[in-house]
Recover the amino acids of this structure.
């Protein structure tokens, strides 16, 4: 009986291993299918974007046709080509600057002089602001304001201190 129990347990363990392999295989198939669906969704999204780009190109072509139909002379075409070449040259200049990075036009030895001059300028600014503050203070001291009236100036018009012109109307 002891051998029968061991045999039953072994059969049970083998059965569980077979189920596990079937589930893993099924899971692999389902993951593959899910990946395919995700890829299809991405392709649909890209297709929509491409459709919008193609639509924009069509609108651009129609606009160019409308413009060119009005004046299809060789001079007009040459002028348009020159304008396009100028824009392309500007784009190329910008790309080359971005590719090379912004480089200082100053030589390495000049950096110290420039930085020292900038430091001196920054150190001089507080003194300049103090001078401005002193000038403002002296102007305020010279400023004479009229005395505060001792009686209500509106009394001459028959109004008391609580009355306002709006209340009188």
């Amino acid at each position: 009986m002891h051998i029968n129990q061991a045999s039953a347990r072994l059969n049970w363990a083998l059965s569980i291993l077979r189920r596990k392999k079937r589930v893993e295989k099924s899971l692999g198939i389902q993951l593959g299918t899910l990946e395919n669906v995700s890829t299809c969704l991405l392709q649909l999204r890209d297709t929509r974007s491409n459709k919008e780009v193609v639509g924009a190109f069509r609108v651009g072509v129609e606009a160019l046709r409308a413009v060119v139909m009005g004046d299809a002379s060789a001079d007009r075409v040459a002028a348009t080509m020159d304008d396009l070449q100028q824009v392309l040259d500007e784009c190329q200049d910008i790309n080359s600057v971005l590719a090379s990075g912004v480089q200082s036009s100053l030589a390495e030895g000049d950096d110290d002089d420039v930085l020292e001059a900038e430091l001196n300028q920054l150190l001089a600014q507080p003194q300049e602001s103090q001078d401005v503050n002193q000038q403002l203070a002296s102007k305020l001291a010279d400023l004479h304001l009229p005395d505060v009236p001792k009686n209500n100036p509106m009394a001459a018009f028959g109004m008391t201190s609580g009355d306002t012109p709006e209340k009188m109307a």
